[in-house]
Every structure is written in C-alpha cells, then in structure tokens.
C-alpha cells in the first residue's frame, strides 16, 4: 500500500475519521517525518491543516478555534523537539480549560529500545499538564481516540495527549472492529426545574438576602449563561462581578454589572467592598484559577453558595452549599421559583459603578486609555478581540465594555505571553465570517513574530493592534513599586509597520486617536492583515490600575 491509496484503510485514517466524527474540522501544527501519514489522513477526513511557525502558537490557534466554535481543538507535533516546543501552549490549555487533543509522532516500537535521536519520554514530559496520555495502537485505534476525546471534553475540560508512531499510522487495517471510527456518545443531562428541592434550598437563601452578589466565571459564559445570569440578577436585584474570561456573561453596560475582577488592585479594592457588603454571594460557573492571592478566602462560607456544572479543584474558598448542574438551566429554575425580589438598596450599585468608572478614567492625551477607547468604539459587539498578557491587558480588561460572552479572549489562568495573535488566527480560521482583532504589547509580538507569516499564508484579514511603549511595562511597574532598579525590561524601537509590510500586510504607526480610528475603519475592508503600532510612553501606565 502507498499513502495515496484510497482503497485501503490505515490506522491514521481511523484516527482522522474518529476526530472528524467528534466535530474536529481544523488542525494546527508543524509537521515532521513521524507525522506525515496522519497529516495526510486528516486532510482526507476533511480536517484542514494550518501550518504555524511555532508549536506553542499552534496550540493557541487550536484554542482560538475552539473558542469560536465549541469544537474540540487539535494540535499535531512531531517527535521530541516538536512536542517540547508545544509545552507552553499545552500548559496554557490546561489552565484555560481547553479540550485540546495533542497528537504527536513517536519512534516506532521496533527500534525504541536502542534508538536515541530526538527521543524523550513524551508521557513524562506532559504528565503534569494532560488529563491522559496514551499511545495509539493498530487494534482499537478509533476507540482509543474516542476515549481521549471524552476525557478532554469532560468538565473541567483540558488537554489530552496521543502518541502515534509512523509504522502504526501506516498500518493497513481491515477488521471491522479496527476500521470503526466511533462518534461521540449522546449524553443526556437532567436539568433542574422550579420545584426541585435543590433549587428550593438555594432559592430560600436568596429570599432572605438584601444585598446578593453574583460572581460569574467562564463556565457561565460557555454555558450560554449570559442571558441567564442577567435575568437572574434582575430577578433578585443582585450586583454582578465576573472574571476576566467571563466578561460579557452579563452585558457590562447593564446597571447591575460591576465589571471584572482578579488582576487590577485598584478595581479589586472597590469590588471587595461589594463582597464585604453582600449578605449572600452566589458563585456561578466560577473557577478561581483566574484570580490572584487577594481573592484567597474572599467569601464567608456561611454566606456563599455555588452553582457550577462540575467541581473545580482549588482551595481558594469554601461554600456552604454547592449545586452541580448546568448554569443556564439552574439560573432559569431559580428565576421561576423566586419570581421578583428586592435586592440592593437603591443607588448603592450605581455608586460602585460610578467609582469604578472614575477610577479608570484616563487622560485626554494619546496613550493606553485612548487606544482602548478608540478600539472599543470601532469594534462591534459580536466581533472577537484577543488580548495578550501585559500591562495593556489589565487596563483593557477593566475598560472594555463586553456586551456578549466569549468575545474577549485571553490567557487569564496561565497568563502566558504571545498568545493573542495565534488565538486570533485560530478564531478567524474557524469562524471566517467574524471580524477578529488581536491586541498585543510590543514584547509579546516580538516573541511571536513568525506568526505574521501564518497570517500572510492564510490570507487572513486580521487587525493587529500593538501597544508599543518599548518596555515590558508590567514588570517595570512591579520593579518600581518594590523600589528596585530597572533591569531587563527595555525594548528597542522596532519598526513594526515595516515588518508588517515585509510579511505582506499593511503596516502603520499611529500616535493619535484620530489616526487610529481611520486605520481601524480602513482595516475592516482590507483583504489582508493590518498591523497598527500605537506608540506612547510607558509612563502612561503609572497609577493606571
């Protein structure tokens, strides 16, 4: 048999067809000799391969595709250095709860005992990061892949690892049991309803609360819970705080929305006043992996109830009562049970909102505040914005008004750098009809410059907005706050506009809001990527958050 022979079924074909049966439509990675059979099979199964310039970027692309579609994410790497390069991206998937399937090549078993070139223990390398690690064999390959996918999707979701040797991948199988490509099992979930005793216990707690506070996490946003969270908040008069990834779980211009928490000490100081004043805290789909040490033991267990689709492993807080159930259905059942309920005294939530707005009001001159405001004015509510780690992410996440869930994507649990551009690429490839904007610092972009070539080769009309302050501003702020000398944080004045043009895109350097607004409008109709380098002084971050 040859790899091009369509009449016979290889193990690689079984693997690819099983992935396709589970909804996988896109794969990202960098091929090597050990994975040529599986790359070929994926294409035959209708799964499109996108070549990244680095394996960690490929993992972020897969995560972006998952966020845009809800389909399992797929990363393919070659042996040894290929998989090792992907470790940061796999760790990010673990802490960001991404159902990422990592499919790597491995040396054939017949020579494994004596061959050492590029050989490392893949399973040991990934042990702290993946939910399972299995080598695919010719017998039962489809069942092995289906099992791994089930583990990846089981809440909380996370990455899984599959090794596949080239010899096994190319092996022809003809037994029906070995050629089967099983699809996902139809799982029926019982949803709570009004009158359910468990719902009644939480409803009883709400009925006596006068200052209820909802803290919504990413699981609420993913469970189509945005409308449900807002409806529940309105029914019980609850103020709402979200994590950064859950922004939009309630429209943030809603009068009960207090915005996001977890990274900004200035915001947290005000939000903690709401936590202390609340006589009932309702945690909805809340995973504290996004939060900082200031949120350790933030909630009085006696005044805290939790609603989540599954248990999150942490020791950040305790709750007197936890209901494990779908977020949206539980919120709807509570509304039906409670009806109307008077919450916070008139004016108290409005006062907190006003204080937050005043605290983050920026200067009139061009700088990070003006960049965020201009970007927000030129990006639609249904557009996707990705943002990289750094000082700009903290400020943008506080200033950004998200009106829909899962429209502001970021690494908030792992907070790794250089993910905004590849995440945006993955989201745009998986949902080409949506406008996608990547927001990065100059340090993050320089770390992942190669993905501009991916933008070019894929012909993606993405917009990349760069906060160019010639520093690792967040670390510089921390050095300054600790009274330490400035060290290792300065970046030279890269001409990003010229680089964009060298990679086949449109590049512009802007130094005022009007120019940025014009460039954003022009980028919307351009058929290639646009990179807008916004230059300002890093001192503009002093006291910003």
Automatic annotation (TrEMBL):
One GO term (biological process): isoleucine biosynthetic process
Keyword NAD among UniProt keywords: no
GO MF term (any one): thiamine pyrophosphate binding
One Pfam family from the record: TPP_enzyme_C
GO terms under cellular component: acetolactate synthase complex
Domain Thiamine pyrophosphate enzyme central residues, every copy: 201-334
Residues annotated as signal peptide: none
Thiamine pyrophosphate enzyme TPP-binding domain span: 388-533
Domain of life: Bacteria
Keywords: Thiamine pyrophosphate
Domain Thiamine pyrophosphate enzyme N-terminal TPP-binding: 10-122
InterPro entries from the UniProt entry: DHS-like_NAD/FAD-binding_dom (IPR029035), THDP-binding (IPR029061), Thiamin_PyroP_enz_cen_dom (IPR012000), Thiamin_PyroP_enz_TPP-bd_dom (IPR012001), TPP-bd_CS (IPR000399), TPP_enz (IPR045229), TPP_enzyme_TPP-bd (IPR011766)
Family in the record: Belongs to the TPP enzyme family.
PANTHER family (UniProt xref): ACETOLACTATE SYNTHASE, THIAMINE PYROPHOSPHATE ENZYMES
Protein name per Swiss-Prot or TrEMBL: Acetolactate synthase-1/2/3 large subunit
């Amino acid at each position: 048999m040859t790899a091009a022979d369509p009449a016979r079924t290889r193990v690689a074909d079984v693997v690819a067809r099983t992935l396709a049966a589970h909804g996988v439509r896109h794969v990202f990675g960098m091929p090597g000799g050990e994975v040529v059979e599986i790359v070929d099979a994926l294409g035959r199964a209708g799964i499109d391969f996108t070549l990244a310039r680095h394996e960690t970027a490929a993992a972020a692309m897969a995560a972006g595709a998952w966020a845009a579609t809800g389909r399992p994410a797929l990363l393919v790497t070659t042996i040894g250095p290929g998989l090792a390069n992907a470790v940061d991206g796999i760790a990010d998937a673990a802490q960001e709860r991404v159902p990422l399937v990592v499919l790597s090549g491995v040396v054939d078993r017949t020579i494994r005992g004596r061959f050492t070139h590029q050989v490392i223990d893949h399973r040991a390398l990934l042990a702290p990061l993946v939910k399972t690690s299995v080598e695919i064999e010719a017998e039962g390959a489809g069942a092995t892949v289906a099992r791994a996918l089930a583990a990846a999707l089981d809440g909380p979701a996370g990455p899984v690892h599959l090794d596949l040797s080239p010899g096994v991948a190319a092996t022809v199988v003809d037994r029906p049991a070995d050629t089967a490509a099983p699809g996902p099992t139809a799982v029926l979930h019982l949803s709570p309803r009004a009158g359910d005793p468990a719902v009644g216990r939480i409803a009883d707690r709400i009925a006596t609360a006068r200052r209820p506070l909802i803290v919504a996490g990413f699981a609420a946003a993913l469970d189509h819970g945005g409308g449900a969270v807002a409806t529940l908040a309105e029914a019980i008069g609850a103020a709402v705080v979200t994590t950064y990834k859950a922004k939009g779980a309630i429209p943030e211009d809603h009068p009960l929305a207090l915005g996001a928490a977890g990274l900004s000490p200035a915001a947290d100081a005000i939000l903690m006043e709401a936590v202390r004043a609340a006589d009932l805290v309702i945690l909805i789909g809340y995973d504290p992996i996004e939060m900082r040490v200031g949120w350790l033991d933030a909630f009085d267990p006696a005044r805290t109830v939790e609603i989540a689709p599954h248990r999150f492993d942490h020791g950040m807080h305790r709750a007197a009562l936890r209901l494990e159930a779908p977020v949206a259905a539980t919120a709807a059942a509570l509304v039906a049970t409670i009806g109307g309920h008077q919450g916070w005294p008139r004016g108290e939530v409005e006062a907190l909102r006003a204080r937050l707005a005043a605290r983050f009001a920026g200067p009139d001159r061009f700088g990070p505040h003006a960049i965020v405001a201009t970007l927000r004015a030129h990006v639609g509510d249904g557009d996707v914005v990705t943002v990289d780690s750094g000082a700009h992410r903290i400020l943008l996440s506080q200033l950004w008004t998200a009106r829909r869930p899962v429209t502001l994507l970021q690494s908030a649990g792992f907070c790794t750098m250089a993910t905004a551009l590849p995440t945006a690429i993955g989201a745009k490839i998986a949902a080409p009809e949506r406008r996608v904007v990547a927001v990065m610092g100059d340090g993050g972009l320089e770390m992942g410059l190669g993905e501009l070539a991916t933008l070019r080769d894929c012909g993606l009309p993405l917009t990349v907005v760069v906060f160019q302050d010639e520093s690792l501003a967040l670390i510089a702020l921390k050095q300054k706050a600790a009274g330490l000398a400035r060290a290792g944080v300065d970046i030279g004045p890269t001409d990003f506009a010229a680089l964009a043009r060298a990679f086949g895109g449109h590049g512009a350097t802007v130094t005022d809001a009007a120019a940025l607004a014009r460039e954003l409008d022009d980028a919307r109709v351009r058929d290639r990527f646009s990179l807008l380098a916004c230059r300002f002084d890093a001192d503009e971050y002093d006291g910003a958050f």
